[in-house]
């Protein structure tokens, strides 16, 4: 289809050159001016995300894994998918005794820890039909819109935050940005984007049936943000 | 291939049916009222709205200024990232590209995220003809597909149906469905069915909200997660974009994806902003192993030719113009019988499909400018509408089938009108005649007949303002 | 490319103005035109009504017949030779002259003249409030009214608050605003006859909105809308009446 390519580009070039466009400069002051005092960011993120049914847990670096475990046990989750090769994954595993209830990985009470450690093809059915919760890290959150930033990686696969019914996300309270724009500038995203980068602002939702909000249409039904101070 | 003269689409007839359906009218009225007030809350700060809009418009204009170069950069960077780029001049070419990929990977089932470009292509029907199932996964699109109809809104495809109607549809079409008229139940049912499909699909398809030239990144926004499913679970992902969807820099994305959901549904951001830059890399455990990007022209490069009409291509497909259009909110999306209804459809579709087929579309508008007032990228929709009305009656090559609606009789009427209004003497005689005789005109006359079908006959005053001003001694100079 | 034209710089209060009546007022609502001129005269202004005037050209312009629109617009240009404001009792026709004439005359030999005339055009209520800063004394009986805003007054002339500010000056008038004040009534010039059913649905919604205010009078600044709304009110035998704001104000001032 290289014919189409050259035809399209040639036509665009001819048409543009016949009537060039002079765009006005892109004035980003309006984005730069969206600022919140550091102490206002987290409450704002919380308010915006809670408005779309996100739940929040408070924890410290020392106890978050226990907080997560106890929460999920309380909620009756039986399986928690995690990324074993990440530092957070190692911390999480340490909160689970190595004697599993069903002879797999680690467990506590009825909650089994399941590592996401093989290609999805070897794992699809289990992933879709046998996992209650998934835990991921975040790169921080955005005050303007109440959004988590996720950069899945080799160690932390993409579907961890999508397929399990409950997504538990760790948010360090010192990694807060004012805007999406600020986050991508401060971290020079344009110099190298990962395979997939995400903003997540709540559990999956839809209003396609008569504009009635319903949560958990395709992705997670619940999003739990664990704020680590 | 023999070219048949295109059949004109009769908007008036289709809209008549819609107007007679009180259920439909009620559904739209309620939905659009809600969307308008939710949007207004998002833009309560007039300065922020003004500045964001100026920024987003500048981003889109920069795209138009550098369109061929940006597409080349996008292609180069996508290719470097491992995304395979395909170009299609026509929807037929695009469909052939898709079929080629599907056959190569022996695909039987494709799951789809929302893509208006694939509506232009009639891709689902095309694949079905080739024995491939293309299943819409966006809940609204899924409902519409089950119903065998078209989306009636580009953002909310099933907005024409209410819960009861959808419950009946599910009961009819889905084995395990129970008769429960509840959005949560219906949503959960669709979740259960579609999760199986995501798991087993051979190919995932999606649209693109913005493609970043600088990094070769495809940005998709959505609330449901079906877009992420389609672009992450199946081994192959095919993304579709109209060629105008490219933006220059990654930093151009935030203003666009801020204004889009705020304008569309009044939410500050969608649940997911999904930025895809490459297929699965060595060592990664999930994600598609192949990504294909299909860049479609389908008339856009012609729209691009005219400096005035070109602004049509600024559109970011938020659909806010529909929500605010007093015509759209009365007749709904189906009456347009086009992939894009409402104001943007009225300027885009006639340019894509030609004025012979779509000449009536630019007239389905009172030129109230409600759309122009809220367009987040400041498209002069009504000016373009006016220009298309000119092209419809003036033979030329600015728009496909220009002059298709030219009528000698209509041209004579306007010539006569101009002669009357351009000469004070002729005007005086004509208005005197209307004052004296106008009220005696039978209501069966053309135009008057349409007018009086729902209104009392307008009454000519017995003396004109000219007469009264003269009588009262109002000076003439 | 913005919706409304840039806000007019407020000129010093003139002693004389031109009045452009518009063809619809001329034929269907001449009393509204007279009332507009009387309101201006009551402010001590000399009002000039050039007898050579006809139409701003909008009907042809919006129907795709630009040459015909240009011919008619051009016939108006010499009627306003002095550097004075031109007051128009219609947001729509004022919008045509202010916003579209420069575009219509672009590249024409008389472009400069057209731009000059265009820059002097004011919608009536806008002129009364912004330039004359009028103070109205209400002599009428207590009554409830509602206001219908024309699309072009709002979105081409930027006239939104001015007419309502005038109505609110009237001590005995209670203004109840429409729920959907910004929504088009469905006139749209030739739209009303090209798409009579849709137009009827639109004006039907408008009439329902008017009725829910409980007002017996709907006041507007555009005779196109009034033809449509009054036609529907009368056709539906509703006890509400539409009236041009100039005429309504004049009645209130005379008691």
Describe the structure.
- The complex is a heterotrimer of chains A (229), B (477) and C (255).
- With 229 residues, chain A is of the alpha/beta class.
- Chain A is built from seven helices and 13 strands.
- In chain A, a hairpin with a 4-residue loop joins β6 and β7 (147-150).
- Chain A is globular and about 70 Å long.
- Chain B is an alpha/beta fold and 477 residues long.
- In chain B, strands 1-10-7-4-2-3 form a six-stranded parallel β-sheet, sandwiched between helices. In chain B, strands 8-5-6-9 form a four-stranded mixed β-sheet, with helices on both faces.
- In chain B, α16 (342-353) runs parallel beside α19 (381-393) and α20 crosses α21 (424-437).
- Chain B starts with 10 loop residues before the first helix and ends in a 6-residue tail after the last helix.
- Chain C has two domains: 16-131; 143-254, Rossmann fold (3-Layer(aba) Sandwich).
- Chain C has helices at 23-28, 30-42, 58-61, 66-74, 91-104, 111-119, 124-131, 151-155, 162-169, 191-194, 196-212, 223-235, 245-254, and strands at residues 16-19, 46-48, 86-88, 121-123, 143-148, 173-175, 217-220, 241-244.
- The termini of chain C are far apart.
- Classes of the chains: A alpha/beta (229), B alpha/beta (477), C alpha/beta (255).
- Chains A and B meet through α1, α2, α6, α7 and β10 of A and α2, α3, α4, β1 and α8 of B.
Outline of the structure:
The complex is a heterotrimer of chains A (229), B (477) and C (255). Chain A is of the alpha/beta class.
What is this structure's SSE topology?
The complex is a heterotrimer of chains A (229), B (477) and C (255).
Chain A (H helix, E strand, L loop, with lengths): L1 H17 L10 H4 L5 H14 L3 E5 L4 H11 L4 E4 L4 H8 L11 E3 L2 E5 L8 H6 L3 E4 L3 E3 L4 E4 L15 E7 L3 E2 L2 H7 L9 E5 L4 E2 L7 E2 L6 E7 L1
Helix pairs in contact in A: 4-5
Chain B lengths: L10 H9 L2 H21 L3 H20 L1 H15 L1 E6 L2 H14 L4 E4 L3 H6 L1 H7 L3 E4 L2 H9 L15 H11 L9 H18 L2 E4 L3 E3 L4 E6 L3 H7 L3 E7 L3 E2 L5 H12 L7 E5 L13 E7 L3 H4 L16 H4 L4 H4 L10 H12 L1 H4 L11 H5 L6 H13 L14 H15 L1 H14 L10 H5 L12 H7 L6
Helix pairs in contact in B: 16-19, 20-21
Chain C lengths: L15 E4 L3 H6 L1 H13 L3 E3 L9 H4 L4 H9 L11 E3 L2 H14 L6 H9 L1 E3 H8 L11 E6 L2 H5 L6 H8 L3 E3 L15 H4 L1 H17 L4 E4 L2 H13 L5 E4 H10 L1
Parallel strand pairs in C: 1-2, 1-3, 3-4, 5-6, 5-7, 7-8
């Amino acid at each position: 289809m290289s014919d189409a390519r050259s035809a399209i580009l040639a036509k665009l070039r001819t048409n543009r050159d016949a009537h060039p466009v002079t765009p006005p400069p892109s004035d980003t002051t309006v984005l730069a001016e969206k600022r919140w005092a550091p102490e206002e960011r987290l409450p704002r993120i919380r308010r915006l995300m809670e408005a779309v049914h996100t739940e929040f847990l408070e924890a410290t670096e020392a106890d978050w894994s226990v907080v997560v475990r106890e929460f999920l046990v309380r909620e009756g989750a039986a399986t928690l998918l995690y990324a074993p090769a990440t530092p957070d994954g190692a911390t999480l595993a340490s909160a689970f005794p190595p004697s599993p209830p069903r002879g797999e990985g680690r467990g506590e009470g009825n909650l089994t820890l399941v590592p996401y450690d093989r290609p999805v093809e070897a794992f699809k059915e289990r992933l879709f039909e046998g996992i209650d919760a998934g835990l991921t890290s975040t790169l921080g959150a955005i005050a303007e819109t109440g959004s988590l930033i996720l950069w899945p990686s080799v160690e932390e696969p993409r579907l961890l935050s999508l397929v399990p019914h409950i997504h538990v996300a760790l948010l360090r309270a010192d990694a807060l940005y004012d805007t999406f724009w600020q986050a991508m500038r401060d971290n020079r995203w344009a110099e190298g984007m990962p395979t997939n980068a995400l903003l997540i602002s709540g559990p999956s939702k839809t209003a396609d049936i008569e504009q009635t909000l319903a949560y958990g249409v395709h992705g997670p039904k619940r999003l739990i943000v664990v704020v680590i101070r | 291939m023999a070219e048949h003269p295109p059949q004109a689409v009769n908007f008036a007839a289709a809209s008549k049916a819609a107007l007679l359906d009180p259920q439909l009218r009620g559904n739209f009225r309620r939905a659009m009222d809600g969307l308008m007030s939710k949007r207004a809350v998002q833009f309560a700060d007039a300065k922020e709205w003004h500045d964001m809009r100026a920024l987003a418009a500048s981003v889109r204009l920069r795209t138009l200024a550098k369109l061929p170069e940006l597409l080349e950069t996008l292609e180069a960077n996508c290719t470097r990232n491992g995304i395979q780029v395909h170009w299609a001049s026509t929807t037929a070419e695009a469909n052939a590209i898709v079929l080629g990929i599907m056959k190569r990977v022996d695909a039987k089932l494709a799951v789809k995220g929302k893509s208006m470009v694939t509506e232009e292509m009639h891709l689902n029907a095309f694949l079905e003809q080739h024995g491939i199932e293309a299943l819409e996964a966006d809940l609204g699109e899924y409902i519409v597909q089950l119903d065998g109809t078209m989306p009636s809104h580009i953002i909310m495809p099933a907005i024409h149906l209410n819960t009861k109607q959808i419950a009946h549809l599910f009961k009819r079409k889905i084995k395990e469905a129970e008769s429960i008229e509840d959005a949560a139940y219906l949503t959960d049912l669709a979740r259960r069915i579609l999760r199986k499909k995501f798991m087993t699909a051979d190919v995932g398809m999606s649209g693109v909200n913005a493609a970043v030239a600088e990094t070769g990144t495809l940005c998709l926004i959505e609330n449901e997660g079906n877009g992420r499913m389609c672009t992450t679970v199946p081994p192959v992902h095919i993304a579709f974009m109209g060629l105008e969807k490219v933006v220059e820099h990654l930093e151009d994305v935030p203003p666009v994806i801020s204004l889009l959901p705020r304008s569309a549904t009044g939410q500050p951001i969608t649940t997911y902003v999904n930025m895809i830059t490459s297929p699965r890399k060595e060592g990664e455990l999930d994600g598609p192993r192949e990504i294909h990007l299909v860049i479609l022209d389908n008339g856009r490069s012609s729209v691009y030719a005219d400096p005035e009409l070109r602004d049509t291509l600024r559109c970011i497909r938020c659909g806010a113009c529909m929500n605010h259009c007093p015509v759209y909110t009365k007749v709904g999306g189906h009456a347009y019988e086009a992939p894009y209804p409402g104001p943007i459809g009225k300027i885009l579709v006639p340019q894509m499909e030609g004025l012979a087929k779509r000449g009536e579309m630019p007239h389905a508008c009172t030129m109230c400018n409600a759309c122009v007032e809220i367009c987040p990228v400041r498209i002069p929709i009504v000016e373009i509408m006016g220009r298309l009305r000119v092209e419809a009656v003036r033979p030329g090559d600015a728009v496909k089938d220009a002059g298709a609606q030219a009528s000698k009789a209509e041209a004579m009427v306007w010539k006569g009108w101009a002669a009357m209004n351009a000469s004070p003497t002729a005007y005086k005689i004509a208005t005197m005649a209307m004052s004296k005789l106008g009220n005696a005109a039978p209501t069966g006359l053309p135009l008057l007949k349409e007018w009086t079908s729902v209104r009392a006959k307008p009454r000519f005053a017995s003396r004109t303002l000219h007469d009264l001003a003269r009588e009262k001694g109002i000076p003439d100079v | 490319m913005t919706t409304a034209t840039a806000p007019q710089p407020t000129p010093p209060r003139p002693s004389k103005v031109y009045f452009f009546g518009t063809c619809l007022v001329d034929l269907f609502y001449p009393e509204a035109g007279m009332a507009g001129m009387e309101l201006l005269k009551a402010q001590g202004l000399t009002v000039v009504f050039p007898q050579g005037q006809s139409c701003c050209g909008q009907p042809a312009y919006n129907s795709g017949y630009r040459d015909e629109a240009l011919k008619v617009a051009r016939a108006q240009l010499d009627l306003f030779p002095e550097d004075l404001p031109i007051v128009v009792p219609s947001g729509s026709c004022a919008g045509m002259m202010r916003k579209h004439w420069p575009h219509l005359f672009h590249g024409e030999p008389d472009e400069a003249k057209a731009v000059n005339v265009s820059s002097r055009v004011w919608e009536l209520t806008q002129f009364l409030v912004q330039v004359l800063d009028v103070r109205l004394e209400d002599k009428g009986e207590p009554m409830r009214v509602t206001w219908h805003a024309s699309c072009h007054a709002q979105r081409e002339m930027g006239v939104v608050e001015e007419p309502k500010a005038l109505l609110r000056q009237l001590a005995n008038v209670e203004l109840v605003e429409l729920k959907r004040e910004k929504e088009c009534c469905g006139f749209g010039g030739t739209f009303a006859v090209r798409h009579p059913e849709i137009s009827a649905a639109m004006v039907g919604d408008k009439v329902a909105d008017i009725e829910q205010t409980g007002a017996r009078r709907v006041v507007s600044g555009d005779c196109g809308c009034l033809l449509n709304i009054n036609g529907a009110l009368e056709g539906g035998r509703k006890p509400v009446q539409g009236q041009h704001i100039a005429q309504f104000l004049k009645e209130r001032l005379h008691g």
